[in-house]
Specification:
The protein is an alpha/beta fold. It has one domain: Rossmann fold (3-Layer(aba) Sandwich). The protein is built from eleven helices and eight strands. It has a six-stranded parallel β-sheet, with helices on both faces. Strands 5-6 form a two-stranded antiparallel ribbon. α1 crosses α11 and α3 crosses α4. The longest helix has 16 residues. 43% of the residues are buried. One of its GO terms (molecular function) is catalytic activity. It holds the Pfam family Abhydrolase_6. It comes from Streptomyces poonensis. This is Esterase.
Length: 283
């Protein structure tokens, strides 16, 4: 029976980012569903202060709908999608970037709903809580300081992370491009940047949300390495793979590699679609 790909986006993103990949999958004969986690997609907040001309003072204090959204909310929403998709046959859960945290927690809770789990340069915390990896040597090459310069407002007061992706600051834009789409054109970069939403929730999970051998560990799993990723460096991706293999040595990752930055695989989706098509044949 034909599987359904369930696609989970990363931070500040939404289901719209998967449209080119879904088109390519569809043309290869595959069924897919792109998820908007709570507070994302048409549930996101775009204030007048975020429009041009921007009012940065107002933007720093305006409320956002994603305030109070937790990882548990994301997981509950994703499980609801997985339950519906599972009625139609096998399910392949695909996550990108921070979406891997939600996918991992959902797999811990309901492994019965997932026939294969796929991480594309995505977080799958095993030895540490997800946020703790940022202090590890494998993340030393990620330019967190430059990206943080685009943050707006006080996260503790707003109850969310807010980033001004519509900044005109050339230094910040250059840092964004280097981190996310260094192998893309300026036009591709600005187009993708305008699909990002300004707000993201604060809950990155706890030790209870790390991959668990008894549940997550039962699911066949694939890790798709992005060889030119500066946002989630290859060294960190490889560490996550090693940790997962150590946790479940009898069920190691099937590892694939794409020559891509953090976002290029979504801009140019044909290679990724072919990889996913190969995985569909395994379930």
């Amino acid at each position: 029976m034909q599987p359904t790909f369930v696609l989970v986006h990363g931070a500040f993103s939404n289901s719209f980012a998967f449209a080119p990949l879904q088109a390519e999958l569809g043309l290869l004969g595959h069924r897919s569903v792109a998820v908007d986690l709570p507070g994302h997609g048409f549930g996101a907040t775009y204030t007048h202060a975020y429009q041009a001309p921007q009012d940065l003072d107002e933007l720093a204090t305006a409320p956002g709908s994603i305030k109070g959204v937790t990882l548990a909310d994301n997981v509950a929403h994703l499980i609801g999608v997985l339950e519906r998709a599972r009625r139609n046959g096998p399910v392949i859960l695909v996550s990108h970037s921070r979406g891997g945290v939600t996918a991992t927690a959902a797999a811990n809770a309901r492994p019965d709903l997932i026939d294969r789990i796929v991480y594309v340069a995505a977080w799958c915390p095993v030895d540490l809580e997800a946020g703790a990896y940022y202090a590890e040597p494998e993340m030393a090459t990620a330019d967190a300081a430059s990206l943080a310069s685009a943050l707006v407002g006080n996260p503790a007061e707003l109850g969310l992370l807010r980033t001004n992706f519509r900044t005109a600051d050339p230094g910040v834009l250059a840092a964004f491009k280097a981190a996310f789409l260094a192998d893309g054109t300026d036009e591709e970069f600005l187009t993708f940047l305008n699909t990002f939403q300004p707000d993201e929730n604060l809950d990155f999970g706890t030790s209870a949300d790390r991959a668990q051998a008894a549940t997550w560990g039962r699911i066949p799993k694939t890790y798709v390495r992005l060889a030119s990723d500066a946002s989630l460096p290859l060294a960190l991706q490889d560490r996550l793979i090693r940790e997962g293999d150590t946790l479940t040595p009898d069920n190691p990752y099937d590892v694939r590699t794409l020559e891509s930055s953090h976002l290029k695989w979504l801009v140019d989706p044909a290679p990724a679609a072919r990889v996913l098509g190969e995985l569909a044949a395994l379930v």
